[in-house]
Structure formats: C-alpha cells, structure tokens
Amino acid sequence: MARDARHNTMNKPKRSNSHEDISLNPISKVIHSKPTSHGAGQMSFGAKDDSSSMLSSSEYIASSPYYNASSAISVLDLLPLTFSFLHGQIGSTTAVSIPEQQPTVAHTKELSLPIDFLPGEEDVKLKEYMTYRSHKHKVTHQGELILTKYRLLFVTKSSESDQILVDVPLGMISQIEKIGGQTRSNISDSYAYGIEIICKDLRHFFFGNTKEQNQRRNLLDNLNRLIFPFSICKEDITKPLAFFSSFFAWNYKKKMCPDKIDEGWKLYNKVKDYTRMGIQLNGDAHWIINNEINQNYTFCDTYPDTLVLPSNFDISRLQSVANFRSRNRIPVLSWYCRQTYVTITRSSQPLTGLNRKCQDDVDYLREIANTNVNQGSKLVILDARPKVNAIANKANGGGYEDYPDCELEFQNIQNIHVMRESLHKLHLTIRQGLQEDKTWLNDLDNLNWLFHIRAILTSVNRLVSLVRNDKRSVLVHCSDGWDRTSQLTSLAMLMLDPYYRTLDGYMILIEKEWLSFGHKFFLRIGFGNKIYSERSPVFLQFLDCTYQLLQQILFETAFEFNEKFLLRIADYLYSCQYGTFLLNSEKVRTDMKISDYTMSVWTPILNDRQTYLNSNYNGKSEQILQINTLYQIKLWKNYYFRYIPDYQSTLDIEENRTSF
C-alpha cells in the first residue's frame, strides 16, 4: 500500500524528448514498442563559445517535461511535418517508404579505371562531366564525376591514362553546398559556380559546372537522392529490406556471404563477458544475470535484453525505479572487480523534478552500494553534465540524486551540440589554414576540441581513481545515459581491465557499452540524412581518447592493438560498408534482423588481425592505467591531418623505418 502510494505521488508530466536528442526535424519515426523520448534538441541557450555552459533544449525548456515511456508518436514528432507544410517544404518528406532507386547509367567494369571496386559495387548511378579544383594547389582538372552505390569518384581523362583524384565513400559525405549563383553571376571566374562537398573526415572538394540548362540543380537533386535518401523520404525501420537497400552494406553482404551470418556478429556474448568478470552464471549473494526482465525489450527498449542486477533487491520494485528514471534506464552493472567487489554501474538521470521522490530508487542505490562488501559506504555518483545543465533539467522534470546515502560529483562534460560545434571549428580552422597558407598548426593545440578531450579524460581519471585507489563503487550517468555515460564507462573499463585492451576485448567493449546500451549511432552519425541537429562526434571522441592513451610512453606495452586499428574503426564508422553502426539500439537491430542483411564491421578486422597488432604488447601485464598529466594530450594528427597535402603520417614514417 505504501509503495503504491509512493508510485502515485511520482506520476511525472509527459514529454516527448529528453536531453540527448530532441529533434525538430523529421529524422526518425517511433521505433520502439513503447512510446519513448528522443533526447536533446537543436535549440540551445547560453554563451556561444564551447567552454561555456551551452544548454540543450531539454536542459532549459519549460514546455518539454520529461516523459518515460511508450508507444505513440509524440507531438514533437509531428512538429517537423507541420513546420515544413507551413513553409511549403512538405514534399516527399512525409513518406515512409524508401525513395525509388537511382537508375543505373553504366557498370563499373566498363570504366576501366585503376581501382579495385568492391564486391557489390557494379552499378554506376551517375556520370557527369565537370571540373575539379584542388584547394591546396588551386589547379583545375577536367574530368568525370562518378557515383556508385558505395563511393564518389572524380576521374581525369587523358590519352595516356586515367587518374583518380577523388575517392570518398558516400557515407563519409556530410554536406553538399551550392557555391555561387545569381549574386555572383557577374564573376567571370569559373571557380565561383558549382558545388562543394564537405566530408565527415575533414576532406572537402569543389566541383565546377556551367550555368546552362539547370545543370547544377539536376546534379544536386541526383546527389541528394543518392547520398541523403532519408532527407527525401523518411526512413522506415519496420521494413528491413527497404531500409538496408539504401546502404551499400546490403549490396556488399549479398556478394560476400548471402546465405550465412559472418563471424563478427558472433563476437560478443553478454553472459560470457559478465562471467569473465566474476559474476556467477546463476547469480550469487550480490549480483545476478537476468535475461527475463527485459526480454523482448519491454522493460527498457534502449537497453540490452540481458541485465546484471543486485541479487537482494525485490524485482517487483524495479518498475517503480524505471518509472523514476529517464527512458526507464535504471542503474545496471557495467563492470565488476571480483577481488574488491567494486562496481561501475550506469543509468540515466532520475526524474526528481523540483520535489518528486521515489523511495524505491533510493533503496535500489543503497543496495548497489551494499554489494561492495569491503567498502559498504556511500555510493559515488558521477554525473557527467555541468551542474548548471543538471539544475536546468531538474526544473523541467529531470534532475539528479540529492540522496543522503550517495556522494554526487558533476563532471562538466558538455552536451552533444557543443561537441558538434567544437569539431566544426576544428574542421574550419584546418580548412582555412590550408587555403590561406598561414602558420596555423601551432594554434590547433589551443582549440576547444582538445579542451573537451581533456575534460572527458579528467572525468575518466577520477572514475578510475575512485575504483582503484578508494575501492568505491560508482554510478555514472548523464541525462539519458547513452552519450557521455558511454564515454566514461567504456574508457574507465579500458583503463581498469587489461582484457578490454586486447583486440577482441576492445571490439567487445564497443559492442557492450556503446551498441547494446543504446548509443544512437544512426542519429549521431547522420546516416542517409543531411539534417544536423542530432549529429555529434561522441563516438569519435571515444576513439580520440583511446588514441591519447595509446600514445602515452608509459602505456606502450599495455595495448594489443595499434593506431591503425582505431583509424580503421573511424573509417568504417562512416563508410556504410558494414551494418554494425547503422541503427540506434539492440532492439532495433534485433527487430530488423541486421545480421541477415549486412555484415559486421568486426569481420574484416578479425580476418586481418596482424595488421592491427602492437608489436610492443605485453600480454602478461595486469597494468591499471591512469594519466598522470593531461598536458600530454595532443591532437590526433594521423586522423585529422591525413588528407592534408604533403602531410606525412607518423605511421608511414614508422613503416619506412621498419622496412630497412
């Protein structure tokens, strides 16, 4: 009775979106079995510079109260359609079917180009005669712009040979911008009219064409149809074939292994990883592996179907805890140390609002703290957000734990919008430096991008110190618990657990803390859609932070994998050659039968292990990593600079040195 009373007092106002991804654009439809929130929006408040507290819409919008759960399209989901209609833009964006495939204009085998096309890359979708100008050397080339299902090429033609000047996967393309027009029509310079293609990996290309017969308009229409199909017709993630056939991953799978599941999809076994940590298969006095409560993802549609929960907590009370947590993402186990009983758990924010309470949530956290039998003291909670953002969330139905049995620390990591803007500034600085030929390299270390990398690693250092030195159990969350939370838990596990520093272990870490726990890759990467409001380089920051650890002299023997491995993952993240990163949650991947339609990104890596191994690795080391000084953090030049003309990668230098 008392518990029912508590449950009734915490009925929270409904919302359609929560911190990490509110969208006022028609990016996605409701995909879960329960109506759920989508996260942070494109609106932001506060100072504009990245080091300030830039609040996302759900962090400071009174009209967006938190909502936990379930099955209808929300009002905010309909706003984009209304907005577009009022502005005459509704067009085909209301459709839920995949746009008609672009007709084939040629076949790659007919091109006779000096390139090995991939299996499944037989059809040429576009060929257009254009000019291409190199940004660095300002040299103009005449040739053909060619698009297959996988890539964009620019090829110069001559009597002697063909030369490929541009080769970029379509999934890598971020924006297509018109350059020149009526306002510049009096400029005779042919460079002033055409299109610029901007890529997610800092590459950018300018292609010039004539102003006759709507050539540019037709070209833009064709490019948008091929590269951003979901900006034309909204994606339908209830129809696997219609969805996956928009990506090259589907064509590649049909050619490579049409009738079997490739080995990469079998790499991660949840129960095996938890038992490796020391959790008993049938449970013990502290923790139990539960594969029933979230069966069919009915308890939490953005969590995996297998969860590790405190053994001594009444499972009938968990629904009350879920109702009090954003998106039903209750605290669950991420990592466990069998020697010290210390744990890292993860969740979303509590929905405390201004005065709501939930005794079941308080008791649940106390039970998590009690599993640490050697340090059965207060649970430490690391809230990844700046405090001002958390307070703003509290005013709008979200909040944080002001519990007597917990110690709360805010970590001051900025939201997805600030991170997106920071990466944009890094891209812009590099591009302007190339074009203006200034001594800009020395200024890069002062950019806010590295400020954010340091902020993430500072928080991870704190988490590792609490677990290793103080033997304290720690709960980590941000707002919805799938962006900054994944960064902190995965990096801490990488530093604490040598297994995750092996090649297989790192891939499993990504499967576990990022893919199965619901990082929204489809939205954060922006697959097939040119809308920006949900994009953010959250996972790229994780790879960057891993690189920062990898390049520390003290850790040169601690990792089985090398930098090439990180670069390969970064490329596969955008390429759309594999299906691993194409969707937002384990539930959607399961419903869409992703392994039937695409290959796993891990399969080519497993088949080419030697390329990604660190020759200095000491497999017997049980070293726990901590960064003693964050001044050693530096820009990942082999990633951000690799397409800069005349830049020589340190990996190439190392290969040349070892070849003698």
TrEMBL record:
Its EC number is 3.1.3.95. InterPro entries: GRAM (IPR004182), Myotubularin (IPR030564), Myotubularin-like_Pase_dom (IPR010569), PH-like_dom_sf (IPR011993), Prot-tyrosine_phosphatase-like (IPR029021), Tyr_Pase_AS (IPR016130). It comes from the Eukaryota. Residues 264-640 form the Myotubularin phosphatase domain. It is an enzyme of class 3 (hydrolase). GO terms for biological process: phosphatidylinositol dephosphorylation. GO terms for molecular function: phosphatidylinositol-3,5-bisphosphate 3-phosphatase activity; phosphatidylinositol-3-phosphate phosphatase activity. The active site is at C478. Keywords: Lipid metabolism. GO terms for cellular component: cytoplasm; membrane. Residues 1-25 are annotated as: Disordered. Substrate binds at N415, I416, C478, S479, D480, G481, W482, D483, R484. Belongs to the protein-tyrosine phosphatase family. Non-receptor class myotubularin subfamily. This is phosphatidylinositol-3,5-bisphosphate 3-phosphatase. It comes from Rotaria sordida. The lineage of its organism: Eukaryota, Metazoa, Spiralia, Gnathifera, Rotifera.
